[in-house]
Write the structure tokens for this entry.
Amino acid sequence: MRNRLRVLRAERGWSQAELAKRIEVSRQTVNTIENGRYDPSLPLAFTIAKVFGLTIEDIFEP
């Protein structure tokens, strides 16, 4: 699954650590999601979408 997480995070000037804190996961988890090595669970995807004020579909694509 592809995602826009890195771009959205950079637009806000957040580090991976800052995003990780906001979504309550480790920085390593953010890194693996950004690099497409890990697809987040549905609850985590909803949390990420909420933090960015977007829908899941705006962030993740199959």
